[in-house]
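Task: fold both queries, return tokens.
Query 1:
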Amino acid sequence: MRVLLLGANGFLGRFVADRLLADPAVHLTALGRGDDADVRFDLAGGSPGALTRFLDAVHPGVVINCAGTTRGGARELTRHNTVAVATVCEALRRSGCGARLVQVGCASEYGPSQPGSSTAEDAVPRPGGPYGVSKLAASELVLGSGLDAVVLRVFSPVGPGTPAGSPLGRLAEAMRRAMQSGDGELKLGGLGVHRDFVDVRDVARAVHAASLSAAQGIVNIGTGRAVRLRDAAAVLARVAGYAGALHELDVPPGRPSPGGPSPLGGPAPAGHSPGGPAIVAQRGESAPEGLTGAPLPYPDGCGSWQQADVRTARDRLGWRPRINLEESLADIWMEAACRI
């Protein structure tokens, strides 16, 4: 099977490439803007005609699009996340290769959801920011293209290679700096959010499965379990061996103090996670620059809660997540610790 991978050098794309290269039945070609791509092509600026000619020459059976950006203003996001996908769809329609398209979308397309709920694929998308809007527009282009196509809406990918600017990436870096300087406490903001963290290697397995399946439409990729960022911080501290206190800043009025059932390991007494440091909630303070978690308001436009309904992935792709969050966090910490 010939597979054309777009965005092979990104956070998700690198692991998708590794997964595909491990399949002896796959002949992989990587297309991108970098020098290490098999073929250099800028999806945001290149013409559909040029891409069509390449598709007709290579004749892939599957095109996987992991390309895009999470940074920049609305104009930049639209160019790389929406216009680029329009180019891919137009080229595939013109080409005679008849390739299947696997588009990697994101949970930001859904926007905020009700606490305690699971978001299914039939939920009405209401993205809360320009990133989600640009990705939703791309998904609509794919779904309305008439192509043999599937959109994987990936929730919060984590694991090795997690970007330093992501909430867990910032947590790991803040912890590394605290341990390096011998600080006995760490002040963090925005730890009350719940996200459905899914390991990037499991995402790569889902992309591989989608490329082999006949599934069309939208398929959620997550774990089906929302985890509080403060609980993830406590597990990260335990993995790192950080025994200091984690002070949570900016606790919204009326919200209970940390505690209650922990999705990472049973009930936890208030202000404490099993095997980790104390987390002390504080209000009216600002976090030192560089030592914050995900600041409020939520930059991904997803509000305080997101949790995937993953039954479609199980039923139509035969896919389930395998890697637990503690293993993902251990890999994030290993990379951060190498910078000490």
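Query 1 returned. Query 2:
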Amino acid sequence: MSVEGADFNPQSDNLYNQILAKTREEHRLFTAHWELTYRCNERCAHCYLDVLPASARAPEELTTDECRRVVDELAALGVLNLTFSGGEIFARRDFFALAEYARAKRFLLRLFTNGIAITPARAERIAALHPYAVEISVYGARAETHEQITQRARSFALTTRAFRLLRERGVRTVFKTVLMRENAREFDALKALANALGAQFRYDITLTPMDNGGRAPLQHRMAYDDLVRLFRATLDPAVWTKRTLRPDQPTCGIASNALLIDPYGNIFPCVQARVPIGNLRAQSLQTLWQASPVWQELARLTLDQLPVCRQCELNSLCVRCHGLARLEDGDLRAPATSNCMAALARRQALVEQGALPQDFPIPAHLQKQSRG
């Protein structure tokens, strides 16, 4: 899930962000996102992964011993943030063995889950890990909406139960929602539900093609009018109208201080940019982090290296993703259609609020969308 949401602030300059900036400048590995498995007990309609049933055999996944070795390598490189995700993390029977091993190495742990498999006993073991947060996906304020997406009966009741079990044990939770056509009109109700469950509310507007190229998830993207409605309610005009991008500035932190590990030991720059770096069964993490030319190539993707985006009048209103551009259009340097539409919707909301003039330009490549 991207940082767009209730907490997104393009101008934020707190101490933590200063530390992040330092690690990016020095190409120090600070954050690892690890997809432990692609097995899952839900079949979410918008999922970008080609998931397997939770009970499926997955002999190619890293073994428990291999995972422990990877944890050791992450620790040796000084990684602080370690996120475990899936699929569904509890589809791995050795999940707690891995998480407890990582906690003993003093990582700051985040756990991504749908919560279905969290029982009182598992909630106790999660609490003993002292995770920074457990982030749980919710797709509707009503069972009907949520289960239309998850395609799993009783998933709403089981997921909301997980929040309560964790809250009772003092575990910080994040209520994560991908906004889409099916739930966009439940935005206020979703926030209220998160508050009732004692969780931080975070949302994302990004839906992507599947990693295997399938485009079925895109049919669930929010309609343009719903994007504008959302931005009318959530944008801080002072933040966006003051935002500027230098030509030599990267539009995201790709290739600077973070990486993605998939269940089979493959390394990628991030969840969206599946540009292969190498495999941990063949090379050490240190070698892959320090020697691969891909990091330098991606780090050079500054605004002035993006032929369309560098000339776009809306680039200061755009939260651009290189990986999404590659998925949608086959080119890391091309505009990502969904990012463009979000920027156009921000423009309209800010014009309606009087924060931008009525004649604020619409880029040539978005003229057709603005009329549609």
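Both queries returned. Flag for query 2: The chain has a mean pLDDT of 93.
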